[in-house]
Amino acid sequence: MKKPSLISLMTLGAVAWPGAGEMLPPIGSRTLDEATRNKVLLINEGSEPPTLDPHTGYSLSGYHVILALIEGLVGCHPTDQSKEVPGMADHWEHNDDFSIWTFHIGEDRKWSNGDPVTAQDFVFSYKRILTPAFTAQSIDLLFVMKGAEDYFRGKIKEFDQVGVKALDDHTLRIELVGPTPYFLSLLQHDAWFPVNPKTILKFGTISDRDTKWTLPENYVGNGPFKLKRWKVRNVIEVVCNPLYWDAASVKLNGINFYFIENQSTEDRMFQAG
C-alpha cells in the first residue's frame, strides 16, 4: 500500500507554531513570519514515532520524517502521486511481463556522509529486512521478490538465491515472483528504502535492532534533508542536505516535526500565530 507522500502532508498538515508554552521550536523560528523568512516548515505530526529506522518503523508520523531523510529507488511526483519520478535510480526498465526490473543508480547519488549510493547498498538493505532475527515490520511487502519469502522462512539459506542482484555498482536487477506492473508503487514504502551498510555495521550487526545509528549524531541518510535534532516528546528537526542529488530543487531550509496529540492545544497554538 502506498503511503501519503511528504509533499501531500506539507500541503494538508502545516501549522504555525507560536513562541509560548513549554514547547519552543529551535533555530529561533517562533512565529510563522520568522519560519517563513527562514524557509522552515513547521508541522504537527500528532504522535511521536518510535524510531527513524525505515525497516523497523510502523508509524505514519515516522514514515513522514523518514521520507525527508531517506530516498528509495524511485520518488513520488510532487503533484500526481500515481506517477513515479527518479530517486536513487535515474532510470529503469522492465521485461515484457513486468517480472524483472533493472534500476540504474545515478552516479551522483550520495549518502549524507559522502559515500556513494550503490546497488550493493540495496542488496544489503533487503538482506537486512529479510533476516529472520531482525524481526522487521512490513516484511511481507518484500515477498513479491523471487525467493524472498523462502529465505525469510529458512527454506533457502543463501541470500544470493533471492531475486536481487547488483550487476555492478550502479545497476540493480530485481526479479519478482510473477508479473507485477505496479511494482514502482510498492517501492514507495519504506520497507524498500536503503540504509547505509557502513553505518549499520559500525553500531552492530545486520540483524541488530534499535542501535545507536538512528541518533542525530550518527544518522546517515540519502534524502533531501539531514537529521539535526530529536528532542523526545517535542520536536524532530531536519535541515537541508547539500549532498542530495537534486538539492537545487529543494525549496525549504528545514522542517520541524512537532508531536502534540491534543487537537485543542494544537488549534490554540495555531490561532496564536
CATH architecture: 3-Layer(aba) Sandwich
Distance between the termini: 36 Å
Tell me the fraction of residues in β-strands, as a range.
15-25%
What general form does the structure show? Answer: globular
Structural class: alpha+beta
How much is the radius of gyration in Å? 19 Å
Please write the string of helix (H) and strand (E) elements.
Answer: HHEHEEEEHHEEHHEEEH
Number of helices: 8
CATH topology: D-Maltodextrin-Binding Protein, domain 2
Q: Tally of extended strands?
A: 10
**CATH structural class:** Alpha Beta
The largest sheet has its strands arranged as 1-10-9-8
CATH 4th-level superfamily: Periplasmic binding protein-like II
Assign a percent range to the helix content: 10-25%
- Low-pLDDT runs of 5+ residues are 7-29
Major β-sheet annotation: 4 strands, mixed
The averaged pLDDT comes out at 88
Overall structural domain count: 1
Could you describe the 3D structure shown?
- The structure is a single chain.
- The protein has 273 residues and is an alpha+beta fold.
- The chain has a single domain (6-271), classed as Periplasmic binding protein-like II (D-Maltodextrin-Binding Protein, domain 2, 3-Layer(aba) Sandwich), CATH 3.40.190.10.
- The chain contains eight helices and ten strands.
- It has helices spanning 6-13, 32-38, 60-69, 119-130, 148-152, 183-186, 197-202, 263-271, and strands at residues 40-44, 74-76, 84-86, 89-94, 100-105, 164-168, 171-175, 225-231, 235-240, 254-258.
- A four-stranded mixed sheet has the order 1-10-9-8. A four-stranded antiparallel sheet has the order 4-5-7-6, covered by helices on one side. Strands 2-3 form a two-stranded antiparallel ribbon.
- The longest helix has 12 residues, at 119-130.
- It is globular and about 60 Å long.
- It starts with 5 loop residues before the first helix and ends with a helix.
- Residues 7-29 have low confidence and may be disordered.
